[in-house]
Amino acid sequence: MRFTENLTCRRDKRNPEKVRGGVLVDMGTQDMAAASIRMPQGKTQHASQKLWGADASQTRDHTVLDLEAVQAARRLASRYGYRIAKRLFDIMFSLLVLVLLSWVYAVVAIAIKHDSEGPVFFNQERVGKDGRTFKMYKFRSMYVDAEERLKDLQDLNEKDGPVFKIKDDPRITHVGHFIRKTSIDELPQFINVLKGDMSIVGPRPALPREVRQYTPYQKERLLVKPGITCFWQTRRNRDSISFDEWVGLDLLYIKKCSVLTDLKLIIQTVGVVLTAQGN
User: Fold this and answer.
1) Neighbours of 205 (CB within 10 A)
2) Are strands 121-127 and 4-11 parallel, antiparallel or unpaired?
3) I want to staple 62 with a disulfide (CB 3.0 to 4.6 A). Which of 96, 145, 217, 271 is the partner?
4) Residues 83, 76 contacting (CB under 8 angstroms)
5) Structural domain tally of the chain?
6) How far apart are CA 216 and CA 213, in angstroms?
7) Phi, psi (deg, nearest 5) at residue 245
8) Does a structural domain hold residue 51?
9) What is the pLDDT of residues 38-93, one digit of tens each?
């Protein structure tokens, strides 16, 4: 799969302060059709919100791309120092977690096997940067027939957009409730980080069936490598915000990504885990 982007901007002759731009987003697969749109005059999204505390999303026309996020992603490609530092940190931090918490992995594996039938790990195809797919690992927190039962629960979905979430999901096991609440189920994703599929910080990886329903605006969250944690992950009310607000937070990260931003999000995530704010 590929994700290519072609950007052209030119000044409006009648009003030099306005910019007219065209953005082509081509997902390059049978499942994700190409999306081509033209930015209306002056129709750019500005990140006027502060990085911390303010809501990153505003009511907007979601048929229009966030041009600022596209430009930020292009600049990121040439920020070699940040990219190298981020990758080295991902590797060292992941190795540290896997070694120091190896006993947690063992205890959770025993608990899962004792609680219900099925494998310890659950791997699922996810969509990452540039539309590339990979196998994401988690500790299994649901019964083995969870995917088959999904269609019977669609009417109970509490989220808008392509994402499926319900508060009391009957597919979750007893141990699953605990490891989800404490975010322990995400620990195997440090293996994905070591492999280079994911980063510690970045937008959460999406399911292919979700991406097939994305608008061109929502597909912009695929401009960077997915991560274990992100702005959305650290929000106390993350299960009550809309999907487009979620996407807005992901695009805010693309615009603001830096070593300082990553470190702040990691520290906030530790707080979320210690206070068991997971769902």
Assistant:
1) 26
2) unpaired
3) 217
4) yes
5) 1
6) 10
7) -65, -40
8) no
9) 333 333 333 333 333 434 444 455 557 899 999 999 999 999 999 999 999 999 99
